[in-house]
Amino acid sequence: MRPSKHDLTARPSVFRRPMAHWASLGAVACLGLNAGLTRAQALAEPAPITLRASPVLREKLAQPASGGLPTFVEGDLLFGRADLETVIEGNAVLRRGDMVIRADRLEYYQPDDLARARGQVRINRAGNVYEGPLLELKVNKFEGFFTQPRYRFLQNDAHGEARRIEFQGEKHALIEDATYTTCRRLPGPSWMPDWILRAATLQIDNETETGYAQGGSLSFMGVPIL
């Protein structure tokens, strides 16, 4: 596998790459049929079928709609105070829209829309997956942090590990002490990707579809090349 898919800037400590678009399925077509046909009409030439666009099942929701989505929680043990906080212990799950958080223990504070999760934490957000031991996140704003995460991005199947991810909203993230590669992960502890980027910080900007690595090095077949 080659790192030539990526655009490297002239500065040796900065790595620039295109970022994936958030996938969108668009509107789902609804089929409109007239069920009230008479027998004579049924024997005649059938009327043409018309398609009507519907936003009901769109994957990408408008901001007002996504802000009003309900939150679902489940687990082995639930307790708390209504409209204040909910604590879930054992197989804890919190779902909202296209995001699912799983953990051994999860606390959700409704007034702040804040989720705190510990122990085998896993986020799946629209196909992008993050795993680690500790998460603190404002759910709707997607602002917070994840410690010692492993991550995989859906669009280009890139993956890596870090000391910490700071989520800065839906479109931005700062990854500290990060690794990044698109080489397929093979089983075994001795696996190494053909190419890998290591960086002190990796700034992801989905608005401009770019990523910037600072204090970084790019290695190919175990040899640093940048």
Produce the secondary structure layout:
Blueprint: E1 7-8, E2 15-18, E3 28-32, H1 39-43, E4 50-54, H2 63-67, E5 72-74, E6 77-81, E7 85-96, E8 99-109, E9 114-125, E10 128-138, E11 143-147, E12 150-152, E13 159-161, E14 164-168, E15 172-180, E16 195-205, E17 210-214, E18 217-220, E19 223-224
Antiparallel strand pairs: 1-2, 2-17, 3-4, 5-7, 6-7, 7-8, 8-9, 9-10, 10-11, 10-12, 11-14, 12-13, 14-15, 15-16, 16-17, 16-18, 18-19
Verbal overview:
It is built from 2 helices and 19 strands. It has helices at residues 39-43, 63-67; strands spanning 7-8, 15-18, 28-32, 50-54, 72-74, 77-81, 85-96, 99-109, 114-125, 128-138, 143-147, 150-152, 159-161, 164-168, 172-180, 195-205, 210-214, 217-220, 223-224. A hairpin with a 6-residue loop joins β1 (7-8) and β2 (15-18). The two termini are 17 Å apart.
Number of strand elements: 19
Strand content: over 45%
- Structural category is mainly beta
Mean pLDDT: 77
Low-confidence stretches: 1-15, 19-42
Shape: elongated
Largest sheet: 17 strands, antiparallel
Rg over C-alpha atoms, rounded to the nearest angstrom: 23 Å
Question: How are helices and strands ordered from N to C?
Answer: EEEHEHEEEEEEEEEEEEEEE
Helix percentage range: under 10%
* Number of helices, where a helix is a run of at least 4 consecutive DSSP H or I residues: 2
Kindly report how far apart the N and C termini lie. Answer: 17 Å
